[in-house]
Amino acid sequence: MDTPTRPPPPPGSSAAVASPNTPTPRPERRPTPPAFSSPLSARLSPQIPQQDRLPLSSSRTPGSLSSGEGVHHTGSPVPQFSTPPGPPIFSSPLRPAAVPFQASPATPQPVAFSWGSSLPTSSSPPYSNGSSEPPHHSADVDESTLESPYVLKRKKLANVPSLGFGALVSPGREIAPGPEVVHHEPHRCQTCGAYSNLYCEILVGSGQWQCVICKNLNSSDGEYIAPSKEDIRHWPELSSSAIDYVQNGNRPGFVPVSDTRITAPILLVIDECLDEAHLQHLQGSLHAFVDSLPLTMRLGIITYGRSVSVYDFSEGSVALADVLPGDKSPSQESLKSLLYGTGVYLSPVHASLPVVHMIFSSLRPYKLNLPEASRDRCLGTAVEVALAIIRGPSADRTHGIIKRSGGNCRILVCSGGPNTYGPGSVPHSFSHPNYAYMEKTAMKWMDHLGQEALRHNTTVDILCAGTCPVRIPILQPLAKSSGGVLILHDDFGEAFGVNLQRASSRAAGSHGLFEIRCSDDILVTQVIGPGEEAAVDSHETYKRDSSFCIQMHSVEETQSFALSMETKGDIKNDYVYFQFAVRYMNIYHTDISRVITVRLPTVDSVSMYLRSIQENAAAVLIAKRTLLHAKTFSDAIDLRLTVDERVKDIAVKYGSQLPKSKLYRFPQELSTLPESLFHLRRGPLLGNIVGHEDERSVLRNLFLNASFDLSFRMLAPRCLMHREGGTFEELPAYDLAMQSNVAVVLDHGTEIFIWLVSHLQHLCYAK
Fold this sequence. Notes:
Blueprint: E1 94-95, E2 113-116, E3 127-128, E4 151-152, H1 155-158, E5 165-169, E6 180-182, E7 201-203, E8 208-210, E9 217-218, H2 229-232, E10 242-247, E11 266-271, H3 276-292, E12 298-304, E13 307-312, E14 320-325, H4 332-339, E15 347-348, H5 349-362, H6 379-391, E16 396-398, E17 401-403, E18 409-415, H7 435-455, E19 458-465, H8 472-482, E20 486-489, H9 494-505, E21 510-518, E22 522-528, E23 531-533, E24 548-552, E25 561-567, E26 575-585, E27 591-603, H10 606-611, H11 615-627, H12 633-654, E28 656-657, E29 664-665, H13 673-682, H14 693-705, H15 708-715, E30 718-722, E31 728-731, E32 743-747, E33 752-756, E34 759-763
Parallel strand pairs: 1-31, 3-22, 4-27, 6-10, 11-12, 11-18, 18-19, 19-20
Antiparallel strand pairs: 2-5, 5-25, 7-8, 8-9, 10-27, 12-13, 12-15, 13-14, 16-17, 21-24, 21-26, 22-25, 23-24, 26-27, 28-29, 30-31, 30-32, 32-33, 33-34
Helix pairs in contact: 3-5, 3-9, 7-8, 11-13, 11-15
């Protein structure tokens, strides 16, 4: 390799210098020259890792719940990888908008559980993971502002296609105050599997409790015996709608961890085919990233181009790279010689920091005169090798599952172009006669690789940057199936570095199972979110268990599931019940079962029902079900028309007809919904204001799995105008806000736009 061009550290710095005496290299190994630690290391400060309490999600319903029933909470302010930094916190108060429009609240309203309406379902499978399902819509309400959430009793009205019934649930939402925590086994219905809750009828003399889902009478083994019904409320699960059941003492070898997280290794997979400008930015971000890691974190480095280089830290003062061909998957023989040899491919940061900096500084720009999209990149092979290193030579396999100490391992891919060489690759040119078939084959291969990573407790996050299209349809299945994310950046600079750091510290539970149970009157028809329908043998079954179970790829605060529901017939009861439970293992290897139970009253009045709908969540759920079909830009154009037809249908079904006219007035109870749907139609999700289809595809995939907060901001941006004296005034997100004498800030969820006088500055925040 060439000698590094990295400048020496400033006087007084503590940079370590590698020894210039390089040992004799082994066959097929590339020695790396010495280098100094980067002066950019202080530029990107590490994000503070969020505490691993992933409490139950907050919620919104079409009405408010009483104090005993409330489940709407404020989310944690600690940033997560999937959530961008919010708007700046201003010391001066917000002033109300001096315009005849209704502005959104000054503070974004956190939500994780929402109710609403949806488009009709078909006979297709009830669970979708960003694939194909008919669009649905749900309406949702802030529990703290409305008198009561309602469910329509009459089936014909409740199941109207354009405004049906649904919910938005974030099982891992951080809430304050947190849910009640109990350390005993939960009491579950022996008939349907539902959990005991505050709405159960308790026979205080015998301790028996009646399930609210199936009405079966169950024994509590005498635990719920009490002198009076008031004394029963001393049990947390019988007095709170949100409960965390924590089980941590039933596994052999369990060691409780209080303050320090169990850290799992991180493997960096780095693209070697970058031009000089991009490479310089990437090197700065990588230097800062490794300086931000905990000293005990184990780190590995792999680079890929036409071949795969696996860096070995066994020599101490110098790095060597084992080289594998990239045109095919690594053979068992090559992996065996790699894993059973003397090489050290995962090393603690404190033992290898100088060598890691040396490796980053030794990276060189691509030298052949080829366009970025035509360069050979064997990304698929590189991820296969990374996964093999994480598994190691002596992994303890039990039923195909790898068990080890620590949380989810992470593979962080830094890519500047498409996978065009080796397994899972596509041709350089779209005009290739076999491109469509090869693309489909590559997508299946990447999906299988992602599932294999998930099976070994490994998450693959793909961070792309630059101007070269990376073929999102090929890479997205790898990230999604492993529980990771794929995001795009303009370059490998500061925003990329921040996201790299967040990826390494993101709190994520594993082995998640999300269970949905409803009253017999309610049918779950569709689920959209980060997971897949659970296999029957992956969870307990009961005699009359009608629950819908989702196997979650990971359990994180920023996720949500969009549910579509229907009423099976006219509802005769005064209440319907919903119970949502997520069982997972947190990063401390503690088993947690989080249970939320909601009771909604039923009503005959359509007007009362419409007033109880929270329109912001209704818009988010409409958008999620619509975008489920937006696979290509042409699909997005067609879906704009379905949004128009939906608005018309809502007006016809729930509005009033104008006198002597065939026109209908849109229902005043949903007066702000059309504006949000206008933003959906014209914004980046369905519109064409974002330049490339790769960018639109990434935004749509983020949106389908995102929490309410991020989803609504991506759908309907928040506009703030800066006034003299440091105050900000909230304005509607219309063109008229862009005046020549004011500064305007537009928060679009994943990005912040700033209008300064006559020019626009675009600040890209971490996604």
